[in-house]
Q: What sequence folds into this?
C-alpha cells in the first residue's frame, strides 16, 4: 500500500513516527498523524486546513490533543457521556496527577521510562486511518494516496482527532467542498 503514497503522504507518516518518538509513545496513534498533518506546508492537506481556518488554530488543536492525552485519550464526547453517568473525568485526572504527576494517565508521557528508539508500530486506530485513506482515494478515483486522503480518513474515523478538527470547522463535508469531491462517493 505504501508504494501508492505520495511524497507528502509519506512525509506525514514519517512525521507521525517522529511525534510518537518525541513523547515516548510506544505506538503511533491517529493523533500523531494529525500533528504531522498540522506540520505540513505546501501540500493539499495544508491548503485545505488553511482554507477552512484550521491553520490559524494549530496551537489550539495541539493543546486540545494534549488535553485529551491527559484524559487517557478520552474524547470530549466520551468525557461528557461519563459526566452524565456521574463520573467526573476532570476530578479523576486531578487525583491521579496529584498522586503520580502531571500526565500520569497519558500513555505517551512516561517520564523516566526509556523506550527503544527504533521502529514504532502503528496502533490499531492509526492502521485504520491508513487503510481508510486508501479507500478514500479509491472512492475519489485518485491513483495515489496523498496527505489529503489521510486528512479525510481522520475526519471520517470517530475519535479525538475528528472531534478536535470538527470543533475547528474541519469535517468531511467541509473538506470535500474545499478539495472537490474527486468524482467519488463519501467513504465511511
A:
Amino acid at each position: 500500500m505504501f508504494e501508492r503514497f505520495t511524497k507528502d503522504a509519506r512525509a506525514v507518516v514519517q512525521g507521525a513516527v517522529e511525534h510518537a518518538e518525541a513523547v515516548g509513545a510506544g505506538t503511533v496513534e491517529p493523533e500523531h498523524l494529525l500533528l504531522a498533518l498540522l506540520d505540513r506546508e505546501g501540500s493539499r492537506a495544508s491548503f485545505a486546513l488553511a482554507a477552512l481556518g484550521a491553520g490559524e488554530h494549530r496551537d489550539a488543536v495541539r493543546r486540545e490533543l494534549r488535553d485529551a492525552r491527559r484524559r487517557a485519550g478520552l474524547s470530549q464526547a466520551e468525557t461528557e457521556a461519563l459526566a452524565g453517568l456521574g463520573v467526573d473525568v476532570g476530578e479523576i485526572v486531578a487525583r491521579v496527577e496529584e498522586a503520580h504527576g502531571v500526565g500520569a494517565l497519558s500513555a505517551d508521557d512516561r517520564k523516566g521510562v526509556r523506550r527503544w528508539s527504533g521502529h514504532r508500530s502503528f496502533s490499531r486506530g492509526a492502521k485504520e486511518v491508513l487503510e481508510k485513506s486508501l479507500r478514500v482515494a479509491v472512492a475519489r478515483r485518485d491513483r495515489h494516496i496523498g496527505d489529503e486522503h489521510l486528512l479525510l480518513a481522520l475526519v471520517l474515523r470517530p475519535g479525538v482527532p475528528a472531534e478536535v478538527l470538527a470543533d475547528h470547522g474541519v469535517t468531511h463535508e467541509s473538506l470535500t467542498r474545499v478539495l472537490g469531491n474527486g468524482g467519488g462517493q463519501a467513504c465511511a
